[in-house]
Amino acid sequence: MSSPSIPFSRIGQWAEPPVISEVMKVALENKHLLSLAAGFTDTEALPVKAVRDISVALATSGKPPQYLQYGTTLGRPGLRKFVSKRLSQFDQHQSPDYHPDHVMLTNGSQQALYLAMQVLCDPGDILLVESPSYFVFLELLKGLGIEAVGIPINEDDELDSKGLISLLEDMKAKGMDKRVKGIYLESWFSNPSTRCLTNEKKAEVAHILRDAGLMIPILEDGAYQELYFEEPFPSTSVFAIDAFDAFPRLFFGTFTKSFATGLKAGFAICDHPELLSKMASVKGHHDFGSSNYSQAIIEHAIEQGDYDAQLKRGRKRYQLKMEVLHRTLVEEELQKMGWSWQKPDGGLYLWLKGPEGLDTSMDGAFFENAVKEGVLYVPGNLCFAPGVPKNYTRLSYGVLEADDLVKAGKRLAKVIRQFN
Ligand SMILES: Cc1ncc(COP(=O)(O)O)c(C=O)c1O
Fold first, then answer.
1. Which of 407, 398, 415, 402 is nearest to 354 (CA)?
2. Looking at the structure, do residues 199 and 282 belong to the same domain, yes or no?
3. Which of 285, 306, 327 is a domain's end point?
4. Using CA positions, which residue lies closest to atom 12 of ligand 1?
5. With 90 as the cut, is the pLDDT of residue 170 above it?
6. Domain shared by 285 and 328, yes or no
7. Residues 287 and 388 in one domain
8. Pocket, ligand 1, Cβ cutoff 6 A
9. Residue 31 pLDDT
């Protein structure tokens, strides 16, 4: 029996399977594949003992098991207090903005990003994004009918301030500036570029926006802020940068990458009460509160030091894994074949730039050969707003163990040699 056609809403019509599912489907269909694609964390090192001990302690405390009860839309007060305090400590800055009342706990920071977009943008509105940017977020924008406009980069692949000025002038001339509803910046060990933004660069962006008359919400994503290898990057969040004082500010963070992905907990901090309250209202419609149990575990892990111990372990393991993959690619002489990348100081990725003209996208021969050779990566074109280069590749070293990282690196190098 054929199913009757349904007149879907615009969101229903625009909904497409996430591209990462397509990439992962390839991995599932090819069991021999080694995947450098999804940004999964280090399975072997997940905090099993800490989570078990905290669960047992909660269950045997003799107190009513409120952690198994519904929580609130904003989330557990104790964890919200930790979130505001940790960001204030990271920034080495104190202001009323770092307040638990300004924090909303969410089902991963992905939900917080979605909520922000739902309350800020209508279909046809514009969000300024870096080039490249977090590709799942770009898909989220597409799914809501929001146009992502990429900020130009300079010859060093860094955010180009002059390019941003010209872009905004051009948009103004075309009457597009009124549709610009925010700017999304990833300031630490960015997914995928692995770069960090200095305070100077961020302040420059603030001045450019102000000069263009765009006092728009600043959305700063700090997903990898604490996942540095040796030292934190010497910068602060936008909350501690004076140039942003007159802008509505939102900071997004997550406990998934730094502690346990499966607990799927993240947060937003916002210094604009109306914006946060609208996001909370819509969150109330989504779920009237994310997992109280996950939040309780994370709250106790932070309180008892397990969270910081896990971060410390993660930093060491990710640095080792990154070194293994980096070294393999160097030994396979990728640079001599016109490939380049910046060795990161944190995060989960290597961002490789191939020779001009190479096409690493999913429907190209390079991707097909990579699958044949048994290695999977994220095609870089997915990480750009439309009008994109196709010669970039994102590799994630989070999940695979060292031996497999070497094998995967060698397989990729073999494909690269076929296209050299
Ligand atoms: C830059 C960035 N932001 C946000 C997220 C969302 O993370 P989560 O929803 O697991 O907190 C991710 C996940 O990969 C990410 O890379």
1. 415
2. yes
3. 306
4. 223
5. yes
6. no
7. no
8. 39, 108-110, 134, 186, 191, 221, 223, 254, 256, 266
9. 79
